[in-house]
Design brief:
The structure is a homodimer of 343-residue chains.
Chain A: E1 2-8, E2 21-27, E3 35-44, H1 47-52, E4 70-80, E5 91-97, E6 101-105, E7 110-111, H2 129-141, E8 149-153, H3 158-169, E9 174-179, H4 182-191, E10 196-199, H5 206-213, E11 218-223, H6 227-234, E12 237-245, H7 249-252, H8 265-269, E13 273-276, H9 280-283, H10 286-301, E14 309-313, H11 318-327, E15 333-337
Parallel strand pairs in A: 8-9, 8-11, 9-10, 11-12, 12-13, 14-15
Antiparallel strand pairs in A: 1-2, 3-4, 3-6, 3-15, 4-5, 5-7
GO molecular function (chains A, B): oxidoreductase activity, acting on the CH-CH group of donors, NAD or NADP as acceptor
Organism (chains A, B): Paraburkholderia steynii
Protein name (chains A, B): NADP-dependent oxidoreductase
C-alpha cells in the first residue's frame, strides 16, 4: 500500500504552472511515539499555501523543495503510536499535506465532534479556521461595535461571506462588500447578508462609489485583498476607524513587491488603527475557540449563517483545483475531497 | 497701531518659496463677545502647518489664500471681550496666526501656570503639545510596556527627543533612534537617552543595521517620518509589535503621492498593530492632560527630561525660519519669538 503525495518540485514564479508539482508515491508512514496516522479526507485550498511555496515563506517557514505541499485538512485517525492521546476513528483538523495519509504528533490536531454522517467538509470552513477567522477578525481584532458601518473586501470569498453575515447578526448599521464580477456581488447580497456589494471589475471609480455608498465613512474595514482596493478604502475611513487585515490575496502571486498604499496619512487624520492578525493566535485557547464555535453552530442551526463549499473530487486534481483560487473559478470555500471516511 | 501678518498668497508646490507669503499690515482686531485679544509671544514652526497650506489640507481644513498662516502659539491676553472667561495678563497657548495679535474665542486657548519670568517658550514644546504628543503617543497609543524595545524615527526632532527619554524613564530595555547626520545622532545618544542612533544618511543599508542593532525585533515603533524609513522598520517588527504613527514629515513637501510601504504584509505575519493619532484627541480631557503635564514637570525638575528649543528672533524672519524645518538646519524645537511679555 502506497501513499500518494504532491511534491513541490519547483518554486513557482507568479502563477502556478503544472511543472511546479510532481506526484510521488511513497511508503505508508508509521506513527512513532505520540504520533498518529491520519487519513486525509478533505484538503482546503488556502491562499496562504501559495506563500509557503516561496523561498521566503510567509507567516510560516517556506516549504522545502521535495516536500509534500502543506495545508489545512480534515482527516480521520487510522492508527495511533505509543502514548498518542487520540483514538482511532476520531475526526480531526489541522495542518496536513497534499497526501493520502499523514503522520504527525497528535498534539497538532484538533478533534471535532463529528461522525461519518456529519458535514465533514464544514470543519475545513465555517466550523474550522475560516469561521474562526471571520469571527475573531471582525469581533475581536476589528473591535466591532453595534451600529458600525462595515466594509469587507473579498466579500463573496470564504472568509468574507461569513464576515458579512456575522456583522449583520451583531447589529451593524450597514454592511458593504467589494467583490469581482456581477455574479459574485449578487451572491454577496442575496446569500451573505450584504446591504450592497461593489463590483471592482465594473470599471466605475471605486472612490466615487465608496463616497456614494458610505458617505459617513467606514467604521470597520475587514481587509482580505490589499492592493488598490485597500488604498481606495483608506480614503473613506470614519473617525477612529478600525481595520483588521486578514490577508492580501492580491499579492500572493506577485513575484515582485508592489507599491503599497500611498495614503497611510489617513490613519493619522482619522486616528484610525490597523491590526494584522492570524487565526493561529487564538487556536491555542481551546475554551475561547470552543465558545466561538458554539455561537457559529447556533447561527447555522437557526438558519442565520449560510456557507458555501465548493467540493472538487480526487487527489489527482489538486494542483489544477488550487489554481482556481487565483482565477476566481469557484463558488465559496474551495475544498478537495480526497477520500471517504472509514465507517 | 497696526497688526503685522504673514499671509498665504500662493499655495506652495513642494518646497516653500519666498513668494508664497506676503506681509500685510492690518488694523488691530477687537475682541467681540466671548473673545480675547492675544499678543503673540512665541510661534511654533510645526511640520503640520505645511499641510494646511495645501488645497486639500491635512487633518485640518486648508488655509484659505489671503489668510494669515495658522500655527500653535504661546501668547498673553491683552484685552477681553464681554463674557470671555479669561483675564488680562494671563498666558495661554493654542492656535494662533503668524501675526502680532490674534482675536479668537477664549474657549480655544489653554491657560498655563506661568509668569513673565517663566520659560515661556517651553509651553510651545515640552510643556505643551509636543510633550503631550510624546507622552500620549508612546505610552497610550503605543501601549508601551516596561521592557519593550523601542525604535523612534526623527529621534533628534522635537517629539523624538522626548520620546526616547520617556521610554528610558519608563523602563524600555533598548531605545534606538533614526536620524539624519552624525551630529543629530550624537545628540540623540548624548542628550536624549538613546542607546543607539542610526544615521540614515550614512549610506549603510538600514535593514542590515536594524538586523544588527535590534536582532530581537521592534516591540514599539514611534513613527515620525514615513517613507523608506518606515518601510524598512516594518521588516523588523517583533511579534505583537505596536506602531504609533505621529506624522510623516518626509511626505509633507511631496507634491505627488509617493508609493507607500510595499511590505504591510508584515503586520499580518507579526500580528502587529498600527495606530495613527493626533494629540488633539486628548486635549479636550483637561484632567488627563494635566496629569500628563504633571509627570512631565516632575521629570524636568528631576533633571531626567531635557529639551532643546531653537529660538529665532523676529516677526520678519518667520517664512525663512519655517523653511529650516525641512532643510534640517535647526537644533530642537524651532520657535520664533515675536514679542516680549507685558509685565
Amino acid at each position: 500500500m502506497k501513499n500518494r503525495n504532491w511534491i513541490l518540485s519547483n518554486r513557482p514564479q507568479g502563477a502556478i504552472k503544472s511543472g511546479d508539482f510532481t506526484r510521488e508515491d511513497r511508503d505508508m508512514p508509521v506513527p512513532g511515539n505520540g504520533e498518529v496516522l491520519v487519513r486525509v479526507l478533505y484538503l482546503a485550498m488556502d491562499p496562504a499555501i501559495r506563500g509557503f511555496m516561496n523561498a521566503s515563506g510567509n507567516y510560516a517557514a517556506p516549504l522545502p523543495l521535495g516536500a509534500p505541499v502543506r495545508g489545512v485538512m480534515l482527516g480521520q485517525i487510522i492508527r495511533t503510536g505509543p502514548g498518542a492521546e487520540l483514538s482511532e476513528g476520531q475526526f480531526v483538523w489541522g495542518f496536513g499535506t497534499w497526501s493520502d495519509y499523514v503522520v504527525a504528533p497528535a498534539s497538532q490536531f484538533y478533534v471535532v465532534e463529528a461522525d461519518a454522517d456529519s458535514d465533514l467538509a464544514s470543519f475545513t470552513h465555517v466550523r474550522g479556521t475560516i469561521g474562526l477567522t471571520a469571527y475573531y477578525g471582525l469581533l475581536d481584532v476589528g473591535d466591532f461595535k453595534s451600529g458600525d458601518t462595515v466594509l469587507v473586501s473579498g466579500a463573496s470569498g470564504a472568509v468574507g461571506s461569513l464576515v458579512g453575515q456575522i456583522a449583520k447578526i451583531k447589529g451593524a448599521s450597514r454592511v458593504v462588500g467589494i467583490s469581482g464580477g456581477t455574479a459574485k456581488c449578487q451572491r454577496a447580497v442575496d446569500d451573505y447578508g450584504y446591504d450592497f456589494c461593489i463590483d471592482y471589475r465594473s470599471g466605475s471609480d471605486l472612490n466615487t462609489q465608496l463616497d456614494t455608498i458610505l458617505p459617513e465613512g467606514i467604521d470597520l474595514l475587514f481587509e482580505n485583498v490589499g492592493g488598490s482596493l485597500f488604498e481606495a478604502s483608506l480614503n473613506h475611513l470614519a473617525r477612529n476607524a478600525r481595520i483588521a487585515i486578514c490577508g492580501m490575496i492580491s499579492r500572493y502571486n506577485a513575484s515582485n513587491d508592489q507599491p503599497g498604499p500611498s495614503n497611510l496619512w489617513n490613519l493619522v487624520v482619522k486616528t484610525a488603527q490597523v491590526r494584522g492578525f492570524l487565526v493561529s493566535s487564538i487556536l491555542g485557547d481551546r475554551a475561547r475557540t470552543q465558545a466561538m464555535l458554539k455561537s457559529i453552530n447556533e447561527w447555522i442551526s437557526e438558519g442565520r449563517l449560510k456557507y458555501d463549499i465548493d467540493i472538487r473530487e480526487g487527489f489527482e486534481a489538486i494542483p489544477d483545483v488550487y489554481n482556481c483560487l487565483f482565477t476566481g473559478a469557484h463558488k465559496g470555500r474551495l475544498i478537495v475531497k480526497v477520500a471517504d471516511p472509514v465507517r
